[in-house]
Amino acid sequence: MPSYAADEVNEAIDSMLSTRVTMGEKVRRFETLWAEYLGVAEAVMVNSGSSANLIAVSALVNPAFPRPLTAGDEVIVPAVAWSTTYFPLVTAGLVPVLVDVDLDTFTIDPEAAARAIGPRTRAMLPVHLLGNACDMRALGALADRHGLVMIEDACEAHGARFEGKAVGTFGAMGTFSFYFSHHISTIEGGMVVTDDPALADLARTLRAHGWIRDVKRRPSVTEAPIDERFLFVNLGYNLRPTELQGAFGIHQMPKLEPYIKIRRDNVEHWNAALRRHARWLRDCPGREAAGSRSVWFGYPITVRPEAPFTRDALVEFLESKGIGTRPIMAGNFRDQPAIRLFPHRVAGSLERAEHVMRQSFFIGNHHAISDADRAYVVTCVDEFMARWA
After folding, report:
1. ∠ CA(232), CA(236), CA(238), 5° rounding?
2. pLDDT tens digits, residue range 278-301?
3. Do 87 and 46 share a structural domain?
4. Which residue of 2, 202, 295, 318 is most buried, as measured by CB atoms within 10 A?
């Protein structure tokens, strides 16, 4: 369901009528609003969350990065994530190391990450999956102990917190997505955030052709060979957003916290109602203790292996009732055919990631779900479960 209304559309039309449609003032306003919301110093908008990951990873191997990573260096990643968590690492010549996940949050297991560290491990990329915060205390301590760079994939976790602090703000950089189905949306769009002004300017340079025009702190260049507006100081892509995306973003910001409340209310309702089926369905509490907050991109359901029915049988039944379902992202990425195309390392058995792949799925959770919709989901699950009473 769209999260936008007339205000976003009118703001975008205003940009189109003005003919100022490429990245400009409205994008900068949205960047400022996003940085203020997270309590972070800098935010750099790009054209998608996937591009945000590409920018952040590309920064790690760039000559301007302090102690840049080099080809063949390893990066610890959870085995359950979306494909564009892994692919930017491959593009940068880095080696993903897949580790197991925690079944309460579907996020990376810090103990599995610790066991996976090897002589070439240089970085860690935790993913705040389904809007659940990773254990950033344990992961931060691990990164400090081994001198690892950490960037966070928070593409599904707008407003999630770990012990009171916004996810995406713990590592060197964090990334967010504003795709159509996310908590707020610019249709397509993404953001890189950081407290390091030099990294922010590196992200701006990488975002737009490697040129100097967008940076806040202009490097000193003696005897520039060309008009400085067209001076190229680094590598770069063209991953810029448009003013139309910025126009949507500035009107989406006030809606985010109300939307999060609805998502959390939905999950609280479903958890309470479906707990009576705990014999066959595993609870997924998320991360709520000690000031942490889950923002629930979707509502996950896990069928216990000992249940008298399969995960697929429940999925098929819900789909027949008009309730859409999805796997938990890309499942255990070790089992995806694309994994054969690039160097990687699998650390451990990935038993829990495999469990997620085979036993779990999620249903939609968003701002437009009504009380009747919530009740209908429960009614349908109850109807299915009645067969096994």
Report:
1. 110
2. 999 998 899 999 999 999 999 999
3. yes
4. 295
